[in-house]
Amino acid sequence: MEAGPRDTEQHDVPPPRQTAGRLSPDGPDEQDVAPEVEVELRPARRMRIWQLAPIVMLAAVGSLMFAFPLAFEFGDGGAVVAMLGLLISCCAAGWGMMAARRVGHTWPGLPARGSGDRLDWRVIALYVAVGVGLVALAVWRVARLR
User: Fold this and answer.
1) What is the Cα–Cα distance from 28 to 25, expressed in whole angstroms?
2) What is the distance between the alpha carbons of residues 138 and 144, in angstroms, rounded to a whole number?
3) Euclidean distance between the first and final Cα of the chain, in Å?
């Protein structure tokens, strides 16, 4: 077998002048470009079950410790158990607020952290009034046990 010129003629491919019509001077036509899709690489920040379970358990135990001595008047030790239950409930609420803040949640009516928005004094006043009212009712009820 002798080495010689090969048959390079291809019958299926159109000549380059016919394919040049599809290209614009700066690249392919706009219809050939696929639209860009923006995808978030990080997963959504949300509270997991292992974060919520101990908070809910502490809140339930604390509220039961607070409610039963106040409702059924267990005698001299009832006020101490009720105040301990109130303390545990408040600790669970604080723990829940810190966990929620860590994943990016905020209280209703308050701006998100780092947003640059100002606090509304009426919302703050409402939160303070509700908190003071709840503490006053709890102290009043425990004081009535004696």
Assistant:
1) 8
2) 10
3) 117
40: DSSP letter:
-
- Paired residues of 27 in beta bridges: 24
Phi, psi dihedral angles at 24 (to 5 degrees): -90, 170
Chain centroid, CA 105 distance in Å: 5
What would the two tokens of residue 52 be?
Answer: 């919520």
pLDDT, one tens digit per residue, over 45-67 is: 777 787 788 888 888 888 888 78
* pLDDT single digits (tens) 83-102: 888 888 888 888 888 888 88
pTM of the model: 0.50
Amino acid type, 15: P
Chain position carrying tokens 């308050």: 110
Three-class DSSP category at 58: helix
Rounded CA-CA distance 112/51 in Å is 21
User: How far is 16 from 20, CA to CA, in rounded Å?
Assistant: 6
